[in-house]
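Report of the visiting student (M.T.), summer placement. My assignment was to run the structure pipeline on a short list of targets and document each run. The first record concerns MFS transporter.
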Amino acid sequence: MLPLMSQPALEGTAQAAPGRWSALSRLAVAVVLAMAPWFSAAAVLPQLRAAWVLTDAAASWLTLAVQLGFVAGAVLSAALNLADRVPPRRLILAGALLAAGANLGLLVAGGPVAAGVLRALTGAALALVYPPALKAMSAWFRTGRGVALGVMVGALTLGSALPHLVNGLGGANWRGVILTTSLLAALGGLIAARVGEGPHRFPPAVFRPAQAWRILRSRGVGLATLGYLGHMWELYAMWAWFAAFFGGVLTAGGLTDSGRGAAYATFAVVGVGALGCYAGGVLGDRWGRTRLTALAMGLSGGCALVLAAFSHAAPPVVLALSLFWGFWIIADSAQFSTIVSEVADPAYVGTALTAQLALGFTLTAASIALVPVLVRAGGWSLAFTVLAVGPLLGVVAMRRLARAPEAARIAGGRG
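After the run finished, the structure tokens were exported:
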């Protein structure tokens, strides 16, 4: 194993780890399977509405509960430095099995209260899957790390889109979906447990509960996290509400089966982000991550503003703009994590990643809840305008990071 060096030195001297692409493919598959319970309730929400006579508020709670549970789990994990004190594959296995068990509990929940608690527990368990997986893959890649993490996030993006395809095809027996996603999660954990540790391991950490706060206060991680927050303000709110928005566009355009058309369109708009993640990884490694993230957020925020002006246009026009938005809205996502892996204290990279994700998902809960309020107050034009504020502020943070000394440690000195 190579001795610990600064990031620029490593970029210039490290040899590609044998088997790294095999490890990436296996871990990407493992994480998508392990994260399946996150999307399970979304896939069968129409059936749950009918079975449990859910109100709009109760249905929204089932969606937000996973986000909030993930935040709680991530905060606890960061405080305990779990991602830096426990081997990633063991954490992923434990999180996947716990998520599978909580997800199975929906079969006997009987109503929204118990289901909401189980969804929160599912989200908390998945906080042991996603951040450690990003750290684990960072140990396999020193050069090409942006592409590697882009592939990981791209796979998750495609998984996020699949529930909309299920709904477009007419759904399925909700109990079968819950059972299947639970089994997939357990399988994902078992696959991850068989992925060995990469050769570029981070140094061991000691238990320091306040380390997450100290890391976030450092300039490099702090600016990267501010950029990430601008990105997250827009991302999950767009994903959560696009089907409702485009369903209205189709209805206004005279389409009778607007629900199915909106489901297919949402699958395409969210799913195209998987290509965006790969492209973002390639460009981040070649151009520099601060430049790529600023470009992606500028284009994404610009798309939101253009759609605010054209929200009543013909469906083909709106869909074309939305596909462009869907590509760029996620293209930068993995690069924020990659930056943290390059500039944070090497012994606490896992803690830094977990803390960054906790803050980001906390913000998503607020923006998801805000969108329907804005739509009632001023329509989709107002909602998209407010969503655009986040990425445009994120551009400012990343331009500041590009001028900071820490930029020399990002993407082999490309910033």
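DSSP finds 19 helices and no strands in the chain. The CA atoms of residues 238 and 368 lie 8 Å apart. I thank the supervising group for their guidance throughout the placement.
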